Amino acid sequence: MDPSTLLITFLFFLAALLYASVGHGGASAYLAVMALLGVTPAEMRPTALILNILVAGVGTFKYIRAGRFSWSVFWPFALTSVPMAYLGGRIHLPVRYFELLLGVALLFAALRLLIKPGGEREGLHPFALGWALGIGAVLGFVSGLIGIGGGIFLSPILIFLGWAETRQVSGIAAAFIVVNSASGLFGLLQSHPPLPAAIPFWMVAVLAGGWIGAELGSRYLTAPWIRRALGVVLVVAALRVLVV
């Protein structure tokens, strides 16, 4: 294994650990690492989605087992996001201008999480089914188009709207990432994209990192820590789409 592949493998492990601790799959980090270290653009999207499914799948299992999940909140988002993620995955368009707007939105969400004053407002607002269906469709399309799972957007939305407790948000986001990543990957695979030869090593690395991170997030981390960690994750993702 060459030094570049070893470095990517190590960085993927760290990214999976951090992202899984807040219920995410890490696709934005994988895309950033691959872009910086010379993986071809054609290989980046399918690789990120495959690794995303593995890490978020581990997270979903652990968060559900720990009782950190809400089916009633999850299903409306998933219902509309899955077909839209497939559609987004089949589209091959330049997305640089969209990514610039995306980066600004992520930074705004991160600042809201990192500097938000006062205590938690979890579970204080009624769930709006119509809004959830619409938001799910938009997030699904964006997820498939860019090659991420969408949890990085869903998490702050759920927190800001007060539709789920912070610990439940992580579990919902993890499951949301699994179904969207799988749908987006299926759409993308219709064009038979290439995969890196090192992907088996990367899969093992993210599974290990994701298992450790999900264990920490589902059982040991407090709600304020999760909010701060999610804010940091959003900053990293924003820098990725704005700079890379």
Q: Can you walk through the features of this model?
A:
The chain is mostly helical and 244 residues long. It has one domain (3-243). 77% of the residues lie in helices and 0% in strands. It contains 10 helices and no strands. Helix 2 (27-36) runs parallel beside helix 10 (223-243). The longest helix has 25 residues, at 41-65.
Concise synopsis of the structure shown:
This is Probable membrane transporter protein. The chain is mainly α and 244 residues long. Helix content is 77%, strand content 0%.
User: How many strand elements?
Assistant: 0
Rg for CA atoms: 16 Å
Strand count, sense and barrel status of the largest sheet are: none
Q: Tell me roughly what share of residues is in helical segments.
A: over 70%
Number of helical segments with 4 or more residues: 10
Instruction: Quote the distance from N terminus to C terminus.
Output: 25 Å
Mean pLDDT: 83
The backbone outline, from C-alpha atoms, is: globular
**Helix/strand structural class:** mainly alpha
The unreliable regions are: none
**Beta-strand content bin:** under 5%
Count up the domains: 1
The SSE string, one letter per element, is: HHHHHHHHHH
